[in-house]
Amino acid sequence: MDKSAGIFVAGHRGMVGAAIVRELRKKNYVNLILRTHSELDLTNQARVAAFFKEEKPEYVFLAAARVGGIGANSERPADFMYENMMIAMNVTHAAFENDVKRVEFLGSSCIYPRLAPQPIKENALLTSELEQTNEAYALAKISGLRYCEYLNRQYGTDYLSVMPCNLYGPGDNYDPERSHVLPALIRRFHEAKESGAKEVVCWGDGTPLREFLYVDDLAELCVLLMESYHGEGTVNAGSGKEVSIKELAETVAEIVGFSGEIKWDTTKPNGTPRKVLDVSKAADFGWKYSTELKDGIRLAYKDFKDRYSV
């Protein structure tokens, strides 16, 4: 990418989009095109089309999405499916119609089958049933990924998709109803410590295995891929390491400084039992994560304390 190329980062106020902006600025890209939700509603096809016609970006990072944890996905599947489907289709189609050079679509490892062979390769997509607790979100993201692939196949575009594992870091969402597991644990243990609570109750039984990636490590990969990757259309992004939710909770409690008891509510869902990505494609490209989980959680906890007075 030319340093002065027009680059639209959709969702620049979200955790992933903000990290991509930081990485682009670190690498001296100067022509960043940014819009807040109030300035540009990406679910509105007419407004998105008009924006692309006027601004003519050359590159697009599509990091905008409606996101949430197991609870939010289960309770509002229609909202998650509609909003994410509209964002994906509106932005990608407008980019295609306005001759954008490259679109990079950000998905999530939750789009892979619930019981996919581990570690999960990119070609595992749609080989068996999805995890029911986030099926609506997954279907919307799969549609966005496939649309990029179909445009490449039919029209010779050079679009790609990045499928990260569980992300965390600066700018994360700590809302108790809409956050993912790691930020939810950070908030819960912090509040318990501050209130002097003797125990914290966590969902499930703690056995599911998950993989985590610090968001700035993902942003580094995203920019590198946009600059010079021209292989198969989808690339997994992760650490290649997994940790049980029980171990994760204990680590967060230690870093936060909560010394009480951790209890598990087995009436709540576990979600997918195991989910670790095969990141060999990214490794072959020359990328590897650099932030270890404990170091990243410390940075995330500092960000939480800086941004919230809980």
Describe it.
- The protein has 310 residues and is α/β, with parallel strands linked by helices.
- It has a domain at 7-171 and 212-239 and 275-290: NAD(P)-binding Rossmann-like Domain (Rossmann fold, 3-Layer(aba) Sandwich).
- It is 43% helix and 14% strand.
- It has helices at 15-26, 45-55, 70-75, 77-97, 135-155, 181-195, 215-228, 245-256, 280-285, 293-307; strands at residues 7-10, 32-33, 59-62, 102-106, 160-164, 166-168, 199-203, 209-210, 212-214, 234-237, 243-244, 261-265.
- It has a 6-stranded parallel sheet, sandwiched between helices. The chain has a two-stranded parallel ribbon with strand order 6-9.
- α1 packs across α7 (215-228) and α8 crosses α10 (293-307).
